[in-house]
Amino acid sequence: MRRFSISALLKEAANGHQGWERQWRAPEPKKEYDVVIVGGGGHGLATAYYLATVHGITNVAVIEKGWIGGGNTGRNTTIIRSNYLFDESAALYNHAVNLWEGLSQELNYNVMFSQRGVLMLAHNHHDVISFKRHVYANRLNGVDNEWLTPEECKEYCPPLSISKDIRYPVLGGALQRRGGTARHDAVAWGYARGADARGVDIIQNCEVTGLQRHHDGSVKAVETTKGVIGTKRVGVVAAGHTGVVMSRFGLRMPVESVPLQALVSEPVKPVFPCVVMSNAVHAYISQSDKGELVIGAGTDQYVSYSQQGGIQIINHTLDAICELFPQFTRMRMLRSWGGIVDVTPDRSPILGKTPIPGLFVNCGWGTGGFKATPGSGHVFAHTLATGEPHKINEPFSLDRFRTGYLIDEAAAAAVAH
Amino acid sequence: MSQPFRLPGGGRIDRSKPLSVTFNGKRLEGYRGDTIASMLLASGSHLAGRSFKYHRPRGILTHGSDEPNALLSVDWRPEKGAGRRDPNNRASVVEARDGLSVSTQNHWPSLETDIGVVNDLLAPVFVAGFYYKTFMWPRSFWDKVYEPVIRRAAGLGEAPEVPDADRYANRHAHCDVLVVGAGPAGLSAALAASEDGSKRVMLADEGFALGGSLLQDVTSKIDGQSAAEWVEAAVAKLDARENVVILPRTTVFGYYNHNHVAMVERVSDHLDEARDGLARERLWQVRAGQVVLATGSHERPLVFENNDRPGIMLAESMRAFVNRYAVAPGRSLVVATSSASAYRAALDAKAAGIATRIVDIRLEQDCGPELAQARSAGIEVLTGHTVIKALGGKRVKGLVVAPLGNGGAIGTRRTLDCDCVGMSGGWTPSVHLFSQSRGKLAFDAELDAFLPGQSAQAEISAGACHGVYDLKAVIEDGAKAGGGNITVEATASFTGFQPVRVLPTDVDPGKVRAFIDFQNDVTAKDIKLAVREGFTSIEHVKRYTTTGMATDQGKTSNMNALGLVAGVLDRPLPSVGTTTFRPPYTPVSFGALVGPARDELFDPVRKTPIDAWAEANGAAFEPVSLWRRAWYFPKAGEDMHAAVQRECKAVRTSVGIFDASTLGKIEVVGPDAAEFMNRIYTNAWSKLKVGGCRYGLMLREDGFVYDDGVVARLAEDRFHVTTTTGGAPRVMAHMEDYLQTEWPDLDVFLTSITEQYAVIALQGPNARKVLEPFVTDIDLSEEAFPHMAVREGYICGVPTRLFRVSFTGEAGFEVNVPADYAESVWKALYEHGKQFGITPYGTETMHVLRCEMGFIIVGQETDGTATPDDLGLSGLVSKVKTDFVGKRSLTRPDITAEGRKQLVGLLTKNGQEVLDEGAQIVADPSAQVPMPMLGHVTSSYFSSNCGRSIAMAMVKNGRARMGETLWVTTPSGFTEAVVAPAVFHQVQGAKADA
Amino acid sequence: MLLIRCPYCGERPEVEFHCGGEAHIARPDTPAEMTDADWASFLYYRTNPKGLHAERWVHNHGCGRWFNALRDTVTDAFVQTYEMGAPRPDAGNASSTATKAA
């Protein structure tokens, strides 16, 4: 792998950038791999990367039906935070934030992790209690999160209206300074490049169509549009299409796939310094390095794989944005799009074993998977390498839906991820 | 500035209506019918902006909504003060009006002299994706140094700083046929569709004049009429038909499911005088039976070195400026083309008296009849020539061209001096809306374009967006799409083009900066670099180079990018993929999407019938779900704490009056009502006597507490159910769901009566005395009307359902009266109660009083993860019933496991200290982080009745910890508290159930 | 925004409706006799198909009635809406759990 650096860049500038090599190869699949990862999004690619770097397992294939990073990795609003309520969630997402902080250097790929702070606004008494509960729990879990008064919110985010006369006045906010945003595509590409350099085969435009099993039921091979690929371990990391892949393997899952919409404005000069989330009025907003306001909308109410939702969802989100930031009504929506998110009954992910020996699943991230990418890949690589969950992902088992050990952040706090 | 480049005659401008605008502080003159772009050209200037990354000077590329370069900040009504300025308006579509104040963007200190142009010198370093490869060291510099610098350099205009002074409207409509685009195909389609009068037809066009490409057509004849006459006649016909709605200035921007089409109409920005209150824009949401897409096509730029210099524009735009706006875009023009259509631009310019030459990439024998026409008009045409580069900086000065020889050889260069270039690389059908409708695109190699293939909705494309370019065929195609069948005679159009990706050059292409995406400064080199680095899917190329992602969304650039990638990979173009088109077609203001949903219309406020009285009596309010509720009633000089303490005392010592109208209320009626209640609630209902009340607990199917409330049995077959304020709609929905879908065999009706009944709570030892004089037909004596009973009778002559219930522990009544009578009943009770010192109290006092008694609030003590046993309410769970909603889940392993959080009371060591609600509880505050947590504080108040603070908490194994000292977080550390039963107050005298 | 044909009221915009998830999952008659795994399956496990999907809708801002719909989750096109209790139109004998509530 040719290292990226300013000196390499200057050297290439002198020679018309003719010397850059492919960031990852385009190999044909081999007959057999130690591990096959189904899904070339951020989580799948990170899993492959950590399998190679942490566990020394490099005979790995990542099978992607389209182009890598083309699913939710490239469609989310790039918010990163770890101020979750439950110990289990805090451990998982904070593990991710710790990895985010060194990720550009680790990957030698600038993922533009920008710790501009994530401010979550409270608009009613219930929000206040809930966010304080988060702040206190986070403190004891070693996760940074602090309570701000409305005036402090305004100081941190000057465009915010803290007028008492709006429909849901801001009563305060919880700020995680270590939170922020990153460049989503770069995360997929950086992991892909790193994994590829260590021998991982990234196979694009290849769809997994079935699973072959040994007589004892364990995994033998995956069937793909590019042939049968032998392997002992399969990790399905297919986000919104998890249900589809698993049904091809004969399994039903406790997930439903729904469209989640987002939009950006036309680019403008810096006007929005942080990330603001408001669950009470359903609004998420930040400004990208290009200058676009990046706005997360809600999910549609029905199962769909269409990557397209209704305009009423966009309208509703912008109602809320313009209530909090009334000066933005003259901004213009430039692009809107949808992703397909897989939602579990408790809105927490599933990371671990399945009833089929050798088959593992990493799914159910719902609307908030991007932030977990490095942590998710790291612990899922451990799970695939050892056959057992890492301490951090142990609670996120499929079995919790049987026992009732739910990790229901949404119910506990009315906070979307 | 005067108008030295205005042509003496012609055009569709109204020379009787001169106007002026301010452009970067200077006066710019023009006429009604101009755009800012045509006014600028009339003044002789092309320079209109700076590019995104390299800050290169840029001119006007197009005459339409596909403009990538000329983006302006516009203050629409500067005379009216702040609040009407917005950035990134395309000069090519901003309709000129007297008094507009516009300015260019993304430069410092000025448009002419921009320091940012230093980026252009660093272009060899600032290639596609350079930022992924650097700015990584030292680690902390990304946030602090690199990113802020990049951010300041990026972005285009300045966001508005003050709230918008305009308002926006919203309208829903239905029609049988919606025609999108009022060019020749669209007009023809609308005429056909509306002809027999049976269909409601809507015709929308983004422009301020109808006619599309015919607006700049001064040579074609249609059935003997000029193009202008034909348009005029068509519009007049449509105007006269009552079944037609014509919407100019209306951009169809989104094609959603089931023919739901979104469009935005610019209502007032173009008006000289806009009456107060007139909306600026209107969002139309149209459900159309059939949609006819007649959206035309976009011209492709040619890709050669310095093809972005001001003065270089699209050939058809050159024609539009000459014919429609009567502007000479230069004194000496060169038309560079691989497309026949550009000859029409050259001929029209020549006819307008402007010196014009043509450079055609095509070989002589590949040209059509256009070649001979041009030559016979005296235009010099160089066929088989490539454009090597453009000369000039802030304005093009010449084109360097060279003949193409056999086998790719390039002949001797020749420089054509000029001050304006019209270029055409052919045409791309505007299939955006078709693609949004999820129709499948099909590549047509002959036309080198993606065309509408299989439709997914009731939609049909016509005209240029359908790959039909000849005028006669366009009009006939439109009529067919509109359901008609006509034949017209029309002048033959010059059609056909030779696809070119990057023009051949005689220098190292690696050193050439030829732009594909003008606004985002993406060059052909950048795209080749991306492919070299393995980004071979077009989506990867887009994301890596940002091509096609600027405010024009690649309308002029996408096909050039796609073709180039396919060429580099030597693969057929469709295999590289096509980009998916997403709404909006052109940028749409947030304001239009928000519409009237601002301020008080953002989310309606629900108010109780007592709300006006509360407001008149000085209540402070708090939002509770959609309601606003009286929070407390401060007297002069009182803060919240003082008011609440006074209210709490009053209830326990005399009587308080409280508006409980927001409680959800549902009537469950029918022969199977009791059975239904048995299945929905954890409790048993069969034995509840008529006239009795019972506290009911409701679970979700997963066993967690969903809602609670008092239920009264009014008759054998009639229950009056109350729910929490926030839970009312979802409880009703939950009940209906089970009733209709799981138990259709039960004969039960459910009716929401939340709005029909107001509830006045009278609580305290003197409650009965206040009530007595007004109640008739009900025996209020303790024996006849005990705690947890309900009676029906009259109060103040108004029918009432009178509940003897208490959420305070005191003797109390809840008076349910029809909402319309509530205020008068309230006032009567309040007046009479004055002799007892009756005290209105709000939700805060209600909370304190119920906490003193240890009563839970669902949503405060519970959080969606609590079971009845967690709350100490297992006594409410029937052991007898074999089933009810949620029962099975209560025996799941984790629900019955040891160590669950249980509801307890907490008493701080220091009774004056009030715990934070939400505070966490630990056994050992010196434990290592992450620290094991035992639970959290759910409710916490200072109780004047108890003379100390009180709190409730959910604590692991809490009920086994009575008397244990635990540590609770405070903003600065921890404080000690002792676990206690969650009952803090002993009611004296006439208790609720005495 | 979807256009949904309420079997009782006719076509109405989606905002008048609420989607209630997968249809034809009847609540078991005797939950107490079920294993934890079977109960979890009833509570949480869903088909989530890419293609035809039977789902529940309620016209909650209209007539208030629940009904079922068969919809393609790829195109979002409705094949049919039908009354509660009617079998899945394309089900044949495939769906044994489809009878009770539904």
From TrEMBL, chain A:
Oxidoreductase recorded as keyword: yes
Gene3D superfamilies: D-Amino Acid Oxidase, subunit A, domain 2, FAD/NAD(P)-binding domain
Chief localisation class: cytoplasm
Domain of life from the UniProt record: Bacteria
GO cellular component: cytoplasm
Catalytic activity: sarcosine + O2 + H2O = formaldehyde + glycine + H2O2; sarcosine + (6S)-5,6,7,8-tetrahydrofolate + O2 = (6R)-5,10-methylene-5,6,7,8-tetrahydrofolate + glycine + H2O2
Protein name: Sarcosine oxidase subunit beta
Organism: Fulvimarina manganoxydans
Automatic annotation (TrEMBL), chain B:
Keywords: Oxidoreductase
InterPro entries reported for this sequence: 2Fe-2S-bd_N, BFD-like_2Fe2S-bd_dom_sf, FAD/NAD-bd_sf, FAD/NAD-binding_dom, GcvT/YgfZ/DmdA, GcvT/YgfZ_C, GcvT_C, GCVT_N
Protein name: Sarcosine oxidase subunit alpha
Database matches in PANTHER family: AMINOMETHYLTRANSFERASE, AMINOMETHYLTRANSFERASE, MITOCHONDRIAL
Pfam families, per database record: Fer2_4, GCV_T, GCV_T_C, Pyr_redox_2, SO_alpha_A3
Family to which the UniProt record says this protein belongs: Belongs to the GcvT family.
Stretches assigned to the FAD/NAD(P)-binding domain: 176-437
Annotated transmembrane regions: none
One function term, GO molecular function aspect: sarcosine oxidase activity
TrEMBL record, chain C:
Source organism, top-level taxon: Bacteria
GO terms for biological process, alphabetical: tetrahydrofolate metabolic process
InterPro entries referenced in this protein's UniProt entry, alphabetically: SoxD, SoxD_sf
One of the record's GO molecular function terms: sarcosine oxidase activity
Protein name in UniProt: Sarcosine oxidase subunit delta
